[in-house]
Amino acid sequence: MLETSTIDVITGMAGRNMKVAFDLLPSALSGFVLQEGKKRDIGMHSGHEIHYDWSYSNFGNPEFMNLYKKAKKGQWDSDDLLWNTDVDPTNLDFQIFPEKLQPMYNHPSYRKLSKNEKGKMLHSTVSWLLSNFLHGEQGALYAASMTVEATPWMGAKYYGSTQVMDEARHVEVFQKYLDTKLNKLYQINDNLFVIIHALTTSSEWDIKFLGMQIMIEGLALGAFGMMYRFSKEPLLRELLKNVISDEARHVHYGVEALRDYYTKEVPDYKRREREDWAFEVSKLLRDRFLFIEFYEENFGHAMSRKEWIDTVVNSEIMSEFRRMLFSRLIPNLKAIGLLTDRIKPRYEELGLLKFEDGKAADKITLNELLAAA
Ligand SMILES: [Fe+2]
Ligand SMILES: [Fe+2]
C-alpha cells in the first residue's frame, strides 16, 4: 500500500505539473514506501555528464572567482573548536536548546512528565535536529562534488571544490558533536531523504543546484540560524556560527549559478517545470519535518500519529522554523527567476509570499544572517 506522502506527490499535484510529479515519484517510492533512507548504506545513480573544458577559457560569472577567493580565506580548522566543553544535553537548568521549543511543550501529556523525563526529551529533540543536520550535510558533500563535475564553467569548478571541503568539515563537526556530546543518532527523516534522492538521481545539473544550493541549503541556513539564536551552549554556538559563514557562501553561489540560466537561457517550458519543482519541494519542506522518528520512539504508544502531527504543525518550534526557512528561501527563488506571476498565487495560498521582499543570498551579510537568526 502506498504511503500517504507518496499519494500526495501524485494526487496533490492533480491539475498541476504531472511531469514534475512523475519525476519525483521514484524518489517518493524509494523514501516513503521502500524506506531506503533507513538502510545502513545505499547507492544511487547520478547520471549527470562530467563537463571538461580543455581551453580553460570559460570561467562563467565573475562572481564565482570572487567567491572562490573568499572561500580560500574563510577556511577554518574544525580542531580549533571548543571541543573540551562539557555538555549535558539532559540538563534543564542549563538548557542546550530552550525547553519551550519542544514540539510537545504545550501538550498535556508533556506537562505530566518528571523533570528527568523532560531532560531526556530535550536530549532527544536536539539529537533529532542535529542528526538531520548531519544527514543533510552528507547530501551536500556529494551534491557539491557533483556540481564540480557537471558545471561548464571553470570558475564554478574552482569555487565548488572549496564547497566540497566545507561540506566535509560540516559532516565532521556535526558527526563529532553527536558522537561525543550527545551520544545519540537518529536515522534520516523521510522527506529529507526524498529530496536528496531526487536531486542526486537527476541527470540535470541545474536540479542539483536548485535542490541543494537553494532549497536544502536555504533550509539549513534557517535551521542553523534558529539553533544559533536559541542555544546558549558555547561549543554548539561556535560550531554553528562557523558553519553558517560557509553556508552563506554556498547559497550565494547557487543564486549566481542559476540566475542567468533561468532568466536568460532556458526555454519557457523548462523554467515553468523548475518553478513547479521548487514549489513541490517547498511544500515537502514546509510541513513535513515533524519529528516522526522522535514521536515513534517517545510517544508512539501514547497518541495517534494524526494527533502528533496536529500538535507539531501548530507548535512554536514549527512556526519559528517555517518563518526562518521561508524568509531565506523565498527571496532566493525570486532572485533566480522562479517566483513569477504564474507561480506566486500558489505560494500565496501557503502564506509564504510575505517573504518575497527579503534580501537574497547575494545581498545579505553574515552579520545580518546571524542577527536575524
Ligand atoms: Fe554544509
Ligand atoms: Fe552548504
Note down, in words, how this protein is organized.
This protein has 15 helices and no strands. The chain starts with a helix and ends with a helix. It folds into 2 domains: 1-36, no CATH class; 60-372, Ribonucleotide Reductase, subunit A (Orthogonal Bundle), CATH 1.10.620. Helix 8 packs antiparallel against helix 9 (234-265). 65% of the residues lie in helices and 0% in strands. It is globular, with a radius of gyration of 20 Å. With 373 residues, the chain is mostly helical. One fe (ii) ion is lined by residues 140, 167, 217, 247, 250.
Strand percentage lies at under 5%
The gyration radius over C-alpha positions equals: 20 Å
Bound molecules: fe (ii) ion
Helix content: 55-70%
